[in-house]
């Protein structure tokens, strides 16, 4: 489905001209002749982007933009403003109101379309997770509320140290962000393990524009700088290179003659967007982790463990190695809950999980698959070593009582059923392997508990 762009201009001819240009680029268009109509149509139709004239009959463009950005239904819609008056104060007012870009007429068609593509890509990157605007966030993946933000770090990238230092002095009076000056080599040499600037302000030199485009492409491709915002400071002679820069991934283009106040404002907007994107990525990573983790013990949960166990068994078969699988169950766990309460039972589960992790290798799998039931998988472990590992885990749980929240202590034990998979098991089904371990566990329970029983098929 083609993206929809709302054109807001009180002159019908201007709206028609823009409609024709956008239609040739396969955009659908809506039209409004005044600010009030634009706000109502934006709320109703939710266009993907708004092209807004600065001067309107009922209210100013910046006022319309501010109202759109204050409304939860429309705040995530990018707004590009257009004006025939080359008024720097009006431009800064529009940017402060929330406009993503302000174009002075006449507009270069290729640059306009490139800017629209850039803004729509950025909007889609957040919308694909259902985050922002009036869309419903995916459960468990909502963006967390931002706390206090420390000053950001901005890197001015230029081969001319004198120009970089002069620009830093000018920007220091307009922003509290930390500013460093780098050349191209230093910018590309940044490591993901060290501090990476939140925003790169790359100054394009008129005599070497291709070098700037290569640098932009490199910054976008490297893990250390991939998520940083990149703004280009362009000379007036940049021409079609500006559109190419946007398509290569530049987040913003800034006129090289712009006053420090405008540059600082644009950098601040990019810093805010970058921080929000960071929060979304962190929230998504946390949500994915929680989806496969038992919230009480921190071990993997059943949802993760069963498919992972199947993958481990398949890998062991391919490599011709053995896979040890254990099903573990706490003995008389109900008595702990009945005697000391459920908080004590939770404390026991947490401590048992800790002791499990302490006795396993990094590549081993440990998961809580039921109330007091766990599964352990140890790849490349022969039957003898598997029995030794199971006994070590059993002793680790038995030897020391578990300290309870009320100050008491409880002595707990484990029963373990062990089965061998991978090359040691003829059946290709991991369900059969788990069933064998489970039946071995049952024998451990019926024969006295607190012991390890090896599946007869693995003996």
TrEMBL record:
Please give the Gene3D superfamilies that the UniProt record associates with this protein.
Answer: 3.30.70.270, 3.40.50.2300
EC number in record? 2.7.7.65
Question: Where is each GGDEF domain found?
Answer: 321-457
Domain Response regulatory span(s) in chain numbering: 4-120
**GO molecular function ontology, one term from the record:** diguanylate cyclase activity
Q: Which Pfam families match?
A: GGDEF, Response_reg
- Reaction(s) catalysed (UniProt annotation): 2 GTP = 3',3'-c-di-GMP + 2 diphosphate
Question: Keywords, A to Z?
Answer: Nucleotidyltransferase, Phosphoprotein, Transferase
**CDD domains recorded:** GGDEF (cd01949)
Q: Which SMART domains match?
A: GGDEF, REC
Task: Report the domain of life of the source organism.
Answer: Bacteria
Against InterPro entries, the record matches this protein to: CheY-like_superfamily, Diguanylate_Cyclase, GGDEF_dom, Nucleotide_cyclase, Rev_trsase/Diguanyl_cyclase, Sig_transdc_resp-reg_receiver
Which residues get modified to 4-aspartylphosphate?
53
Q: Kindly provide the name given to this protein in its UniProt entry.
A: diguanylate cyclase
Organism (species):
Albidovulum sediminis
């Amino acid at each position: 489905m083609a993206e929809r762009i709302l054109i807001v201009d009180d002159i019908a001819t201007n709206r028609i001209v823009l409609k024709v240009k956008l239609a040739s680029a396969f955009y659908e268009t809506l039209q409004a002749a005044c600010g009030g109509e634009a706000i109502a149509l934006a709320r109703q139709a939710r266009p993907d982007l708004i092209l807004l004239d600065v001067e309107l009959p009922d209210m100013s463009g910046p006022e319309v933009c501010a109202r759109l950005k204050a409304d939860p239904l429309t705040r995530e819609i990018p707004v590009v403003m257009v004006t025939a008056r080359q008024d720097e104060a009006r431009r800064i007012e529009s940017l402060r109101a929330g406009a993503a870009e302000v174009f002075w007429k006449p507009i270069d068609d290729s640059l306009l379309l490139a800017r629209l593509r850039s803004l729509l890509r950025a909007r889609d990157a957040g919308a694909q997770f259902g985050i922002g605007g009036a869309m419903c966030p995916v459960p468990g993946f909502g963006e967390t509320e931002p706390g206090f933000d420390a000053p950001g770090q901005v890197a001015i990238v230029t081969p001319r140290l004198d120009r970089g230092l002069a620009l830093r002095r000018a920007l220091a009076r307009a922003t509290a962000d930390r500013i460093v000056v780098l050349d191209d080599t230093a910018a590309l040499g940044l490591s993901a393990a060290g501090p990476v600037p939140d925003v790169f302000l790359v100054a394009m030199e008129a005599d070497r524009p291709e070098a700037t485009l290569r640098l932009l492409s490199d910054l976008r491709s490297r893990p250390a700088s991939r998520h940083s915002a990149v703004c280009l400071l362009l000379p007036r002679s940049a021409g079609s290179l500006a559109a190419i820069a946007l398509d290569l991934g530049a987040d913003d283009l800034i006129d090289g003659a712009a006053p420090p106040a405008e540059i600082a404002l644009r950098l601040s907007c990019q810093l805010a967007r970058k921080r929000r994107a960071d929060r979304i990525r962190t929230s998504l990573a946390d949500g994915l982790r929680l989806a496969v983790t038992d919230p009480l013990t921190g071990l993997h949960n059943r949802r993760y463990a069963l498919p992972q166990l199947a993958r481990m068994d398949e890998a062991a078969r391919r490599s011709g190695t053995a896979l040890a699988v254990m099903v573990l169950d706490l003995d008389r766990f109900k008595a702990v809950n009945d005697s000391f309460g459920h908080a004590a039972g939770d404390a026991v589960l947490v401590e048992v999980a800790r002791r499990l992790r302490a006795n396993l290798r990094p590549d081993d799998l440990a998961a809580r698959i039921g109330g007091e039931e766990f599964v352990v998988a140890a790849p490349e472990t022969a039957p003898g070593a598997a029995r030794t590992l199971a006994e070590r885990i059993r002793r680790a749980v038995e030897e020391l009582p578990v300290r309870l929240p009320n100050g008491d202590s409880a002595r707990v034990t484990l029963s373990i059923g062990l089965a061998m998979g991978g090359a040691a098991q003829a059946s290709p089904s991991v369900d059969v392997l788990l069933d064998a371990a489970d039946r071995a566990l049952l024998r451990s329970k019926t024969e006295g508990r607190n012991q390890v029983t090896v599946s007869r098929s693995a003996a």
